Amino acid sequence: MSYVRELRLLVGHRPLIILGAVVLIFDQQGDILLQHRKDNQQWGLIGGSMEVGESVEETAKRETFEETGLELDELEWFDLFSGQELIYEYPNRDIVANVVAVYIARQFKGKLKADHDEANEIRFFKLSELPKDFSPPDRPIIERYIRGLRYQ
To answer: CATH code for 3-150?
Structure first.
């Protein structure tokens, strides 16, 4: 059982501060990999919560493999996100205050496949054609990335 699930058994839906990692995964065309999440039926980034004893880099790689089947070698640091914008209430009423380490990956290996426990679908999108129904805690991350591209 995951660390967060164990905590939920103790605290119910009360707010938890959750440390996690997200990876902005780009293919050779510069398209970004997103997953259509089962929990809120919205598109989101690849990543998840840290387990006890993991580094954030290990979390990023583990979550990527679990959710996509892809293995990552190199991670490029992007930014750390926290604050009011990353507080989220899931449809099941669980409340989280996310602290998210964000990485970029441009090289990967393996066969792309969705974790059907967590996602309906995974696929690459052009940054100019992102879906409108984007998961709220992931929105500030992708917006900051795109905003940064405009100033390069």
So the answer is: 3.90.79.10
